[in-house]
Amino acid sequence: MAGIDLPTPARALAIAAHPDDVEFQCGATLAKWAAAGCVVDHLILTDGSKGTWNPDDDLDALVATRRDEQRRAAAALGATGEVVMLGRVDGELEADLATRSQVAYWIRARRPDVVLTHDPWRRYRLHPDHRNAGWLGVDGVVAARDPHFFADHDVAHHRPSALLLFEADEPDHVEDVTGFGEAKVAALLEHRSQYVTTMHIDPDDDGTQLEAFRGRVLDGLRRHGAPAGFELGESFKALLDL
Ligand SMILES: [Zn+2]
């Protein structure tokens, strides 16, 4: 691994397509930084309205539920910043200029030292929201750092010092999250509406499936940590020359 452990940022902003993506991809890193005093913000681009397998579900209610779940998950990470929901329709996220402007606005408004988002260059990724969220995050950083991009914003331009791409095609950086695995699990478990579809925890689970999910999350952290010699880790592609 080329890099391990950035200095704890004063502010971090995680940009993701859906409620729960941040917790899955970088929740333990954010929990570690929050515990050390970093202000952690979430920018969630879609409303999560496709997050059910039940064709009869009330989607307005689901959107409201997922907003509440995302707030509770952020709190479970220890995040003291904002949870901003852009509310684009789940499954229809476009990496267009209007949305890029909004992403750049929130980078300028929250002034993070580190931005974390999906790796848009990851090969063979099926979900269009994850691809487009990656482009919006990367292109949003470029727009945010220069005063002549989106000059209509009422906030000053801002250049983060690091961009960490999660689900990376070629990871080259690991954060040591030993001691923060349970915080990640606790945050993920706040996304109760996703138990069946994403976490494979049935409503009548006696605790066995929940424990299996916890084991899978911790196993993933062990796998990511191993190349750097950490008990638990989260890996990223790090862009440090912004
Ligand atoms: Zn997602």
Structural summary, described in words:
The structure is a single chain. This protein is α/β, with parallel strands linked by helices. 38% of the residues lie in helices and 18% in strands. The chain is built from 6 helices and 8 strands. Helix 1 runs parallel beside helix 2 and helix 2 runs antiparallel to helix 5. The structure holds zinc ion. The site of zinc ion has 4 residues, from loops.
Throw out a few tags for this protein.
single chain, 242 residues, alpha/beta, 8-stranded mixed sheet, 6 helices, 18% strand, globular, binds zinc ion
First-last Cα distance? 20 Å
Mean of pLDDT: 97
| Small molecules held by this entry | zinc ion
Q: Work out the helix count.
A: 6
Give a short account of the largest sheet. 8 strands, mixed
Radius of gyration: 17 Å
Order of helices and strands: EEHEHEHEHEEHHE
Give the CA-based shape. Answer: globular
Residue fraction in strands:
15-25%
The strand count comes to 8
Low-confidence stretches: none
Structural class: alpha/beta
**Strands of the biggest beta sheet: in what spatial order?**
1-7-8-6-5-2-3-4
- The level of helicity is 25-40%
Topology readout:
Elements: E1 3-4, E2 11-16, H1 21-35, E3 39-46, H2 59-77, E4 83-88, H3 97-110, E5 114-118, H4 128-144, E6 162-166, E7 173-176, H5 181-188, H6 208-225, E8 233-239
Helix pairs in contact: 1-2, 1-5, 2-5, 3-4, 5-6
The chain binds zinc ion.
